[in-house]
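quick one before i forget lol
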Amino acid sequence: MMGDMPARYDVIGLDADDTLWHSEDTFHQVEARFVELVSPYASIGVDVAAALRATERAQLPIAGYGVKAFTLSMVQAAITVSEGRVPALVIGQLLELGMDMLTETVRLLPDVPAVLEVLGGLQPQNAQGEYYLTDLVGIYRRRKLPVETVMVAHADEIRGINSRTELAEVSRIVRQNKNEELMAAGVTLVDPATTYIDPDVEIGPDTVIHPGVVIQGQTRIGDACEIQAHVRVVDSTIGARVAINSFCLIVGASVADGAAIGPFAHLRPESAVGEKAHVGNFVELKKTTLGAGSKANHHAYLGDATIGANVNIGAGTIVCNYDGQSKHRTSIEDDAFIGSDTQLIAPVTVGRGAYVGTGTTVRENVPPGALAVSAGKQRNLEGWVARKRGTGVKT
């Protein structure tokens, strides 16, 4: 604490969970119960736990942290991943979990009361006017309280951070330790110095990570994947043998075994890419499930959509999910073929095995096995250009 603050306080506010008392274990237990309750109603391929974490992040500016915000996120995530199918009984159970967390008995960590009592005696008696935790050693000795010595394996573990430069240096050490741990476990980092991987990330053996990759949060990546340069993955689940090409952004999404992503693809929260599916360049998925073997290889926006297996999404396809007031769902069933430059005006369903012709605006449901077209017959107006230019000469 800095010396320009008052020397004595009536109330000190602390972020105390897991600092003064146990808390994190309860959140993990409730998250596991959330997955158990909601998974039966979630869309196929959706990572329910990842969806919850993505919802928490999205709610932070409004709801903040804590049990109440976590409970609100559970309810919101349950509705979203189930596309509204989650029953009221399950919502009630989620709310009950939140109430149990709020009323849980506080379990203090060892010696917390004694430490808090001693902290109250600290004074900023130094030229900087700052409070030093190291003064606790002298206070404990004067009160004849036990003081123990703890040996650390590396001096870096107790380095102080008093500037942005020191913060950057310690961050580099933490990244280096994580990178060395992964490489020892069989992960190939082509250039560890430019690879940024958070401590909680898990990556399977024989996966290759190229330069400039950033992997954050609770991301899980399977065996034998290849992640090309300048990819960012946040709080997502990536299966085995997945290829992620350069310049992709994947946040709060799941990608099943054998899928291929990018380059320049964007998977937004609560999106799921099925086994051996392809998401190509300049394709964006938002709250969308792309089924096994389906392909969206070029320039497409697929928002709030459930897409079945072995579906072809042509270049330039847009799911028009927003009517200016509300978002609506689109369903494309197995084996459908969506031609290039198609607009799907939600809510709409394209039936199993149906074809949608190039340049079609789909405003009504397409029955299974049908062909949908909306463009009129092409007309060629001979001499039109010359007449428009007033030359009278055909070009």
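fyi Residues 188-372 form a domain with the UDP N-Acetylglucosamine Acyltransferase; domain 1 fold (CATH 2.160.10.10).
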